[in-house]
Structure formats: structure tokens, C-alpha cells
User: Which sequence fits this backbone?
């Protein structure tokens, strides 16, 4: 029988998740993810500007199909994601704790549970948000006039380093349920839960390119995200003021919509469960048609 | 000030200039093709020789050095209408402080009381409608028919609609308790001067915010007349402040640290500059910017109605409309027919004195804008498109298809003029097919299949509006769904209503104005 104490761990390299595949960074860069004691627990890929471009390209390609899928189908696929996560609760909790920075086992289990519930919540919004946000408009004249909510397109999701699974899911799910595709820049301090989420997506029903996950250096990638001309909007939270300013400044280039939420408590459902988290990620389209013969 | 208006004389104590209206119609009589009897609007209005800034409920002279006043002119004859104050950084600061001071009381006012102020404003606008229309036409060059029948009625309607929202905001935002944003800096353009003021001020006040408004440099008069109305209805001082001036005044407003929100309507270029300038402070921002809106005519459309739609789509307000249907896509099978019908219809458009009640197309707003239009007319020809100016024989030898005519010729010497015209033979790569002209210049292109129409329509960084004409219902909804634009007019064009949200996709800006969705920009949730 092998001596477990002296066995050398097989350290996994967590890769990027782009277009339903798991590439290493084209730059060849990676970094060592260590725990609080300084022990290396995994390797992660450090995404480059080119990886971001590839991810946006995949998201753009996938977007029309995802938006054209019935709301019912999008809801089911997101719910399926929740089902898949439910089966991996232990692995996800371990991933959250892997770097040792994020508290107790109970806390990690709670984060996983809330993240799954959040996904369930937004799965249910997919065929309701346009009813909550759109309407018929009583114009003064013989016209039929209504306003519908359409997805903005490709959304860059920028969660903070904290709550590495829950923050990512909380910012991505509102975008996905509305028919947007997502490129997410995951936690810089603990990329492992995001990587596990990618592995879950790959075995679920989410079409390739709908959710793309990048791990890497936040300071390096924020500017590239803000300036990328094929990103339509940004959904971020709990960033430093200078990071938010970087996003807004670069976003002016193509007038992408930037939402940087402040002081979000990820465990507070009254804050995080709302159609008003979907609203900044959709465009309001108003259609007129004469109603007189 | 504050005396109720009597017969359009607004209790103005200062000397007034009377505006001669008949003589301009005579000057035009020989200038246009048809020989129509003039039908000038005869309502006399008074304009003060000089207007100060409206800050904290008082009229005050600009503070600080430099040029203190600039003239605003009538673009139809270049006569000076009045001198306007050039608001300085200090003036903007004073206005923002006044708005800040007024904010706690105004936002804490019982909502139904706030509503009643807005209802009062709407009523006074209705009562002074003719005067406002005349003033708008004098200052902007738009036909009196449009300011009287479109702009001013919509202004009153806009205040009336938003008045009702003031005490119902909780119903607009499910599950939330909306709160005001604070002090709103609002910068508006010259194409619909008073209407844009209404679009900005009405929702801001309904939601409990206070306002600093910067009207456009060339068209400040109706906003200043609105200030007189705000005095009449006894709106509390500082709730709305109006600071006139040029771009420097606007820049000072954007840069002011105590402004919580910026709302801007204007060019995409300036919009991007504002987005950059407010990035660090993270001010709430809404932008309603330029467009190059596609107008698609399918072969199964009702063509005569479609031609009316094309005309109102691009020649309404001299084409100085951000949502103008400036890229016409006609299905190939009906291209020649539509162009012929369009020429016949356009030949009967009356270009001339904006104050004449029969005028369809008035004066271009400014010399600068006319130069911009001329630049694109030149570029269009240079890049190989063919210009047509139906109904005109000026500016060149009239060939069979009216090519090589100059739409800016054959008009009165004074004032800024451009006849409605269009280009054929336009390629998607042509400058006139890509950039916003903001004038009565249409680019006509063709397509074969619905997919091609949608692809080409969406091939632009803009996304403000779009038009589609077909009598087939399923095709209407299919096309409307696929066009990337904030407003889709189906079998109609250029319709506006306070209950209907307006605003763009992509680089046409973000945020909506009007409707329940328009309230979002003026509340914190």
C-alpha cells in the first residue's frame, strides 16, 4: 500500500474556458496558485490580450443564437447549470477554500449554495424580465406602440476577488438569462472555483461561447476589456475606484454600457435578486405601427 | 418679472424689439420655384434685447472676464434677435450650488405637490403655445408649421405626462423605493430647442431632482422663455437653473464635482468626450447621440405611403434630426419607381421663409451647419454618387435627371439654405452612407433580399432608429426584431410621444427618454 503522506500531489493546471474549449493561454503564461501557508495548490493560466480577443470573438459568434433561443430554453439551460453545480457542491467548496483565504468550510458551503440558488433565480427570469421591464405605451394617436427589452450583446463580467464563485455567478447570470453572452474576468486571488464552473458548463447544455472564463492579472486585462470595441457592456462590482475609472474611460471609445455596482453583499438576496440587475444589460427597443386601417 | 402674460406681452420691462415677419416672405417670393402667395404667421411677440442667466430664480449677469454676451440670430435672415449671456465657470458653479441648495426641499416635497408644479408648467405652455412656436421658429429656422404643430404641443404633453409620474414612481420600479439622483446637469441641442428642454427637465423634476440646463448656443431663446414660465408658475428658486453659453459652459457643467448626473443630447463625438470627462468621477450618465438611421422599403409596401414616410423621415426639420432616416434601402425591383415617386413628391415641397405657414422646409440652423452639409454634398459627388435636387434648376445645367445641381443655390442671399435632395449610386463605403450629415440629404441604396437589407441596415456604429415598410405583418415583426435600433417605425416614421421611450443602441448613446423607461435615468434604486 502506498504511503499517502509521502505521495506527491498531482497538481492540476486550470485552463481558460473559451468557446466551450479549455485552451492554455496563447501567451504560454501561467502562475502558481498558493494557499495561505505558501504551498502551491494549483497552476492557473494567465490570460493575455489575445485570449481576451478570442473569447470576445467566441461570445460574439454565439450571441445571436443564444438570444434567438426561446426564453423557455434559456431558462432550462441555466437551471441545468444549477443542477450540475448541485452535484459538485463539495468540489466547489474545496475550490473556494483551496487558497485558504476565504474562511471556513461552512462559509464555503454557504457560498456554493447561494450561488446555485442565484442561478435558479435568474433561470426563472429568462422568460419574465421582458414582461417586467417592457410595456405597451399609450401614445396619443392611432398607433400600436410597445417597448421590449433586448440583450445588449456581449457583456464583460468583472467580479471582485472576493467570493470567487458567488460574485461571478451573480454578475453573469443576469446577463445570460437575457440572451447576452459573457466574457468574465475571474477572481485574481482564487481562480479555481471559476475553472470548476467552466468544467461544469462544458458538460451541461450551455452552447459553446455563451460563457467564457478568463483567469489572469486583473490590472493588465481591465484596460483591454474597457477598450475592446466588440464588447457592448460591462457588469462589474466592488472594484476599487481607480479600476472603475479605468473601465469607464476605455468604455467611452465605443460607448459601451458600464455598470459598476458598489458595496454589494453577495449573500443578500434582497440586493442581488432583482430584474434591476438585468435592466442595465438590455436595450429598450420601441416599436411603432399604425393602428388605423 | 413674474407678471402673468397678457396677449403674448410677457410683462417684459425692458425695451422690446418687434420682429418684422411679412417682409421676409416678400423676399422669398421670387426665390422658390412655385409662385405661392405668402401666408406669414402674424402673431407679434416681444424679445428682450439682452438675456441674462437664470440662476436661483433670479436673472443675473455673467461673472468673470472675457466676452460676456453673444448674439443669437434668425438663421432665415441673419438678423440679431437678442444678446445672450456667456455663462462662465463661476456662473455654472453658482447654478449648481443653487440647484444643490434647492434639492432637499424639492425632493422632500409631497409628490403630488411636485406633480402640480409640472401640471402648471404644462398648462402655461399650452396657453403661450403660439408665442413659443413663433419664438422657436425665429431662433432655429424650423418651419412655423412644425414648431406650432409638433414641437410645442409635444413640449406641453411631455410636462403633462411626467407630472402624473411624480406620485407614482414606486409603481414604475417593481420592488424598489426610487430616490432622486440629485443635481442634474443637462446639455441640449439646437434642433428641437424647447422640446429637448422638456425631455430633460420634466422627468428630472418629476423624480425629485433639481436641474442646471445648458441650452444650445444658437437656440437659447425658448429655454429662456421657459424660465419666464417657471417664474409665472412659482417653481421654487433653484429647482431649475438655465445657464446659456457655448461649449465651454457645457464643459464646466460636466466637470463640476457637485453634479450627480449628466444628460446630454448632441453629437457622438461630444458624447464620447463627456463620457471620458466624467469617467473618473463616475457620474451617472445618459447620452442621446447621433444616428444614420436606415429606412427599408420592401417591394410589398404601400408605396405612396412609403414615399410620404421617406420624405418626413429625412426632410422633417431640414433633416436636422438625430433619428433622420438618412440611409434609404429600397428593394431592387421597385427602386426606379420609388425614386420617380420621390422626385415628384419632393418637387412640391416648399422651401422658404420658416415663418410662412405653408413652408415645408425652413432654414438650416447656422452657417456652420450649412458648411457641414455642403462638405458632405461635395464628398458625395467626389466619391461618385449622383445628386438629385427635385424641383430646382439652380446651380448647374439641368440634365435629364437633374444631376449636378446645387441645392444651396437659388435661395435668398441672407440666411442659410439647402433644398431637399438625395444621392443615388451610393456605395456602403461612401462617406455620405456612413457619417451623419444632419441636413436634408438622403442616400438612396438598394437591396435584393430581406437578409441583405438587415445586414446593411445594421452595418453602422449607430443604432438610434430605423424604419421599415411592408404590408406583410410577419415580415414587419421579423425585420423590427432584427434591426439594432432603439426606435423602430413600422409603416410610419418620425413619430414622437412622451409615453414612448426614445434612445439608441450602440454609439447612438445609452439611456431612454420618455415613457416609464425614461424615468430610470433620474432615480436611484
Assistant:
Amino acid at each position: 500500500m502506498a504511503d499517502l503522506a509521502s505521495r506527491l500531489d498531482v497538481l492540476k493546471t486550470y485552463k481558460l474556458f473559451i468557446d466551450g474549449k479549455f485552451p492554455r493561454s496563447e501567451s504560454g503564461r501561467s502562475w502558481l496558485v498558493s494557499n495561505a501557508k505558501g504551498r502551491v495548490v494549483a497552476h492557473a493560466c494567465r490570460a493575455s490580450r489575445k485570449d481576451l480577443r478570442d473569447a470576445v470573438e467566441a461570445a460574439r459568434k454565439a450571441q445571436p443564437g443564444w438570444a434567438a433561443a426561446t426564453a423557455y430554453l434559456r431558462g432550462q439551460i441555466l437551471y441545468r447549470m444549477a443542477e450540475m453545480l448541485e452535484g459538485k457542491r463539495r468540489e466547489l467548496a474545496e475550490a473556494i477554500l483551496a487558497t485558504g483565504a476565504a474562511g471556513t468550510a461552512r462559509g464555503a458551503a454557504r457560498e456554493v449554495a447561494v450561488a446555485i440558488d442565484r442561478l435558479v433565480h435568474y433561470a426563472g427570469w429568462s422568460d419574465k424580465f421582458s414582461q417586467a421591464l417592457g410595456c405597451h405605451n399609450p401614445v396619443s394617436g392611432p398607433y400600436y406602440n410597445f417597448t421590449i427589452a433586448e440583450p445588449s450583446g456581449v457583456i464583460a463580467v468583472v467580479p471582485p476577488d472576493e467570493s470567487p464563485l458567488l460574485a461571478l455567478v451573480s454578475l453573469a447570470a443576469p446577463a445570460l438569462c437575457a440572451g447576452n453572452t459573457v466574457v468574465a474576468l475571474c477572481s485574481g486571488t482564487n481562480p479555481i472555483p471559476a475553472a470548476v464552473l467552466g468544467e461544469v458548463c462544458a458538460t451541461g447544455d450551455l452552447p459553446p461561447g455563451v460563457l467564457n472564463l478568463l483567469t489572469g492579472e486583473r490590472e493588465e486585462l481591465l484596460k483591454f476589456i474597457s477598450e475592446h470595441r466588440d464588447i457592448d457592456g460591462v457588469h462589474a462590482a466592488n472594484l476599487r475606484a481607480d479600476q472603475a475609472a479605468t473601465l469607464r474611460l476605455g468604455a467611452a471609445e465605443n460607448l459601451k454600457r458600464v455598470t459598476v455596482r458598489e458595496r454589494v453583499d453577495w449573500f443578500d438576496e434582497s440586493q442581488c435578486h432583482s430584474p434591476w440587475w438585468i435592466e442595465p444589460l438590455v436595450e429598450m427597443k420601441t416599436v411603432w405601427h399604425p393602428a388605423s386601417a | 418679472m413674474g407678471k402673468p402674460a397678457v396677449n403674448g406681452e410677457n410683462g417684459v420691462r425692458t425695451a422690446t424689439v418687434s420682429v418684422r415677419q411679412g417682409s421676409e416672405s416678400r423676399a422669398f417670393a421670387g426665390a422658390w420655384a412655385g409662385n405661392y402667395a405668402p401666408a406669414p404667421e402674424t402673431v407679434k411677440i416681444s424679445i428682450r434685447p439682452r438675456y441674462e442667466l437664470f440662476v436661483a430664480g433670479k436673472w443675473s449677469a455673467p461673472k468673470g472676464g472675457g466676452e460676456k454676451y453673444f448674439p443669437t440670430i434668425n438663421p432665415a435672415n441673419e438678423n440679431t434677435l437678442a444678446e445672450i449671456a456667456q455663462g462662465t465657470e463661476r456662473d455654472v458653479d453658482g447654478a449648481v450650488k443653487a440647484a444643490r441648495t434647492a434639492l432637499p426641499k424639492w425632493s422632500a416635497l409631497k409628490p403630488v405637490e411636485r406633480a402640480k408644479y409640472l401640471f402648471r408648467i404644462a398648462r402655461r405652455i399650452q396657453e403661450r403655445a403660439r408665442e413659443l412656436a413663433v419664438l422657436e421658429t425665429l431662433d432655429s429656422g424650423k418651419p412655423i408649421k412644425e414648431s406650432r404643430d409638433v414641437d410645442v404641443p409635444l413640449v406641453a404633453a411631455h410636462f403633462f405626462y411626467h407630472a402624473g409620474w411624480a406620485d407614482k414612481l414606486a409603481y414604475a420600479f417593481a420592488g424598489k423605493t426610487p430616490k432622486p439622483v440629485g443635481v442634474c446637469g443637462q446639455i441640449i441641442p439646437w434642433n428641437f430647442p424647447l422640446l429637448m428642454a422638456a425631455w430633460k427637465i420634466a422627468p428630472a423634476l418629476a423624480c425629485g431632482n433639481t436641474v442646471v440646463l445648458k441650452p444650445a448656443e444658437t437656440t437659447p431663446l425658448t429655454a429662456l422663455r421657459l424660465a419666464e414660465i417657471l417664474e409665472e408658475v412659482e417653481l421654487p428658486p433653484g429647482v431649475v437653473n438655465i445657464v446659456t453659453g457655448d461649449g465651454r459652459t457645457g464643459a464646466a457643467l460636466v466637470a463640476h464635482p457637485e453634479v450627480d448626473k449628466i444628460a446630454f443630447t448632441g453629437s457622438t463625438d461630444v458624447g464620447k468626450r463627456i463620457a471620458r470627462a466624467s469617467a473618473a468621477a463616475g457620474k451617472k450618465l445618459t447620452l442621446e447621440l447621433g444616428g444614420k438611421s436606415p429606412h427599408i422599403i420592401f417591394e410589398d409596401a404601400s408605396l405612396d405611403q412609403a414615399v410620404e414616410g421617406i420624405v418626413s423621415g429625412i426632410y422633417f426639420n431640414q433633416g436636422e434630426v438625430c433619428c433622420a432616416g438618412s440611409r434609404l434601402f429600397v428593394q431592387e425591383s421597385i427602386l426606379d419607381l420609388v425614386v420617380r415617386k420621390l422626385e415628384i413628391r419632393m418637387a412640391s415641397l416648399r422651401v422658404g421663409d420658416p415663418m410662412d405657414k405653408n413652408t415645408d422646409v425652413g432654414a438650416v440652423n447656422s452657417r456652420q451647419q450649412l458648411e457641414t452639409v455642403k462638405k458632405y454634398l461635395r464628398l458625395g459627388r467626389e466619391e461618385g454618387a449622383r445628386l438629385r435636387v427635385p424641383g430646382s434648376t439652380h446651380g448647374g445645367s439641368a440634365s435629364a435627371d437633374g444631376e449636378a445641381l446645387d441645392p444651396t443655390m437659388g435661395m435668398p442671399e441672407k440666411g442659410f439654405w439647402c433644398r431637399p435632395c438625395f444621392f443615388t449610386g451610393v456605395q456602403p463605403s461612401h462617406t455620405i452612407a456612413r457619417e451623419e450629415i444632419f441636413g436634408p440629404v438622403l442616400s438612396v441604396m438598394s437591396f435584393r433580399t430581406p437578409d441583405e437589407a438587415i445586414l446593411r441596415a445594421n452595418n453602422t456604429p449607430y443604432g438610434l432608429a430605423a424604419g421599415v415598410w411592408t404590408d406583410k405583418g410577419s415580415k414587419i415583426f421579423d425585420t423590427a426584431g432584427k434591426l439594432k435600433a432603439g426606435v423602430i417605425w413600422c409603416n410610419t416614421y418620425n413619430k414622437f410621444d412622451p409615453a414612448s421611450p426614445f434612445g439608441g443602441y450602440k454609439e447612438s448613446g445609452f439611456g431612454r427618454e420618455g415613457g416609464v423607461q425614461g424615468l430610470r435615468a433620474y432615480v436611484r434604486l
